[in-house]
Amino acid sequence: MAPLTYRYVALTDVGLRRSNNQDSGYASPRLLVIADGMGGAAAGDLASSAALAEIRDLDRELDDDTDGDALDAMRTAVANANHRLAQLIADDPAVEGMGTTLEAMLWDGEKLAVAHIGDSRAYRLRHGRLSQLSIDHTFVQSLVEEGRITPEEARVHPHRSLLLKAILGRDDFEPDFTWLQPAAGDRYLLCSDGLTDMVDDETIERTMKLETIDAAATELVRLALEAGGYDNVTVVVAEFVPGDEPIDEDLVCADGKPQLVGAATSQPRRRTGSVSASSAPAVHVAGAPGAVEPDPEELRYAPLPVPRRRWVRWLLGSLVVLGLLGGAAAYAYDWSQRQYFVAPSDGMVAIYRGVDVDVPGLTLKTVDEVTRIEIDTLPPYQRDRVAAGIAAADHDEAKRIVTNLSIQVTEPTPTPTPTPTPTPRRTPATSAPTEAP
């Protein structure tokens, strides 16, 4: 079987509500990348393009002696991207708060090394079925995983764009890294949330089945714009084929050159100062001719003020954290004192208040009532249950457990007292009868 290779295409559009494109996309015979910049006027386009510039360093033949495998090289490149953003923020504090998502795949000739952070997504179409490969690092995704909302509700949740993880130039970022094994015929899609917020997965699946990846990418962008185009929309599509299969000369990738789209194609503008509602890009308000309101996405990603008295912020933050921990501890203790269980106490069955857990320096259980039931008078099975502790939802249930145990009490079998063996009475000797004459 011939080794695999892939065809590729990258496409972007600024959308119908944005004044600039903060997405950056890249596709080449070795590397596929999406970076969705965030920060609005705090330089989202600068963040995505700077991160992509570091990731593009992977688009070369890897040296096993210095780079390790493709996944090691990916980890290094993502760390470099994070460090680059930290440098930009240190040079210009006005852009603090900027960041970017990242979805990247590096082909080593056999498999894909993948990096993911944020809410840009990776999909795979295999045998006509679309599957989402990445897990969104968002607030609403955490609600879905906790079972508090459904995936359908997550699509329309007002905080669906609130990120929990992103590349922000900080030390506490935690990307996901993994391997993928492609097969001939697989199609992979990397996209920004400008697509997934506008187009559902069923429609994406149908579109990914179009005859060519160029047609699929074009149609995906068109559908996002047709649905409202509230955000920049960027897609990178790749299709795996046998390496000896001739390339269709009509495909954009027929020339074998890398494709770079979005913010990374131009020098992103540097920001200074702060942003206000009047300076943020605006959208028209329906039903109010001429009226505008600030773009909610731009305001959500508005830059932080230049840090001053940073130690005060750290102190206040620490106090808040300590307060939350103290509150949580107080709640946990209060909850424990509303619990009951039945267990032994000095050989007797007792009702305890609290939880049967030993915590050094803290008493979480106290004897609430000692019954008259001796442990030794219970059947073996019940003795074992009491020894292990029988949990009760409340005091009334604990009493019912004790009542049930009292019914099963068995009186100890008395030890029989030995009966003395009677001494046989001796019969006085009599003279033997004499025979009558």
Report the C-alpha radius of gyration, rounded.
37 Å
Please tally the helical runs, counting DSSP H or I stretches of 4 or more residues: 12
Broad shape: elongated
Give the number of DSSP strands: 18
Major pleated sheet: 7 strands, antiparallel
Indicate the mean pLDDT: 83
Number of structural units classed as domains: 2
- Name of the CATH first level of the largest domain: Alpha Beta
The helix content is 25-40%
Which residue ranges are poorly predicted, with pLDDT under 50 across at least 5 consecutive positions?
Answer: 270-308, 430-437
CATH fold field value of the largest domain:
Phosphatase 2c, domain 1
Tell me what you see in this structure:
The protein folds into 2 domains: 4-265, Phosphatase 2c, domain 1; 337-407, no CATH class. With 437 residues, it is α+β, with helices and mostly antiparallel strands. It has 12 helices and 18 strands. Strands 2, 3, 4, 5, 6, 9 and 12 form a 7-stranded antiparallel β-sheet that branches. A 5-stranded antiparallel β-sheet has the order 1-11-10-7-8. The longest helix has 27 residues, at 310-336.
Write the layout of secondary structure elements.
Elements: E1 4-13, E2 23-27, E3 31-38, H1 44-55, H2 64-67, H3 70-91, E4 99-100, E5 102-107, E6 112-117, E7 121-126, E8 129-132, H4 139-145, H5 151-155, E9 176-180, E10 187-191, H6 193-196, H7 201-208, H8 213-226, E11 233-242, E12 259-262, E13 282-284, E14 292-294, H9 296-300, H10 310-336, E15 340-345, E16 348-354, E17 365-374, H11 380-388, E18 390-392, H12 395-407
Antiparallel strand pairs: 1-11, 2-3, 2-12, 3-4, 3-5, 5-6, 6-9, 7-8, 7-10, 10-11, 13-14, 15-16, 15-18, 16-17
